[in-house]
Amino acid sequence: MNLSFFIAARYFRSKKKRNFITILSTISMIGVAVGTMALVIVMSVFNGLEDLIRGLFASFDAELKIEAAEGKSFEITEDWLDSIRSVEGVAILTEVIEDNALFDYNGNQIVARLKGVSDNFLDQGRFSKGYFWGDTTLGTGLRPAAILGRGVGFFLSINLNDINVPLKVFYPKAPRSAATIDPSQLYASGILDPAAFFSIERQFDDEYVIAPLEFAKKLLNYGDRRTALEIKVEDGASINQVQQRLKGLLGERFLVKNTDEQHSGLLRTVKLEKLFVFLTLTFILAIASFNIFFSLSMLAIEKKKDIAVLRAMGAPDKLIRWIFLKQGALIALSGAIIGLILGFLVCVVQQEYGLVSLGISSAVIDAYPVKIAWTDFLWISLAVIGITLLASYRPAYIASQVDTVREL
Prior knowledge:
Keywords: Cell membrane, Membrane, Transmembrane, Transmembrane helix. By secondary structure, the protein is of the alpha+beta class. The chain has helices spanning about 5-15, 20-60, 80-85, 150-155, 200-205, 215-220, 240-250, 260, 265-290, 290-300, 305-310, 315-355, 375-400, 405; strands spanning about 65-70, 75, 90-105, 110-115, 130-135, 145-150, 165-170, 185-200, 210, 225, 230-235, 255-260. It has two domains: about 5-55 and about 265-405, no CATH class; about 60-260, no CATH class. The protein contains 14 helices and twelve strands. The strands form two sheets. The chain has a six-stranded mixed β-barrel. It has a two-stranded antiparallel sheet with strand order 2-10.
């Protein structure tokens, strides 16, 4: 066994002459354990929230979305769409026309996002998460229907069972050179039958109304223009590979975004929050680890004669330093292992039983989501090692400077 580790382990296990050194060591261990456990739990919660956000967005957004690099719409032809459908890995292509419009229901009005989609929109596994109630249909050509976000529906006080009250949609026409005093010539209008509500995430719930593509094309006068194309990838195919193939086919005039890139700002914010929380808790852990510094300093004072004997026997300064560095490492490692195990157990219990509730009755999930990532354990362990080295170095250096002649 390594001599410095053997002596450090004996110091760690043995009862100190001064009881407060033992108390300081115990406090140091508990502080590291609590700080490590907090890091594991908080990092796992952020991982769970990130996965939840991805899952909710994926139930509304397409796996891949094609948009114009410049402008909000682009021209399409059937041959061009067929070339996209023929790309290896593309299963379903949905045409999209999306723009703001005014909605009126029984005198209640709101400006929301009209999203006109082709008939295969619901074939892409939409609304797999969250809540959905009503008919999964967009009506017929003669009676087009709408699927509304819960926030839009509640604001308009829509009653899905009342088939006699239509949802009116108004969209301003492009201004013409000839002036008119007839208000009806300034906007286009249409009627939809409210068919269903969906509730996924507030960003979607409060903004979107899903309608048939033909209805949106006629109301908005888009013709052969589309604002986006949404693509579902074949089962088993790599989304990244299909994305690269589409980029190669479409060139720089179009953007091909996966689910994360469609909401890159929000996901980046979550990652930044996770980083800052990690740094904050690591700083708190560093403060708690100052007890290691004090306990090692007291131990160095208590063991002056032992150190002097070792030096008299020919022990170099490096060996003395390593004894106290490893003593600090044992204290921190013991606390870190306890903290990692406790943090892991808390996360497992939360995953299985959802003990800590969100406290929101209308939330998509009832309890805080957690996801254990082993990379977090690695970063937490590295943080504990770094803090331990910083806290232990000074006492180890002081111990190595003991005057052998004076102490003996």
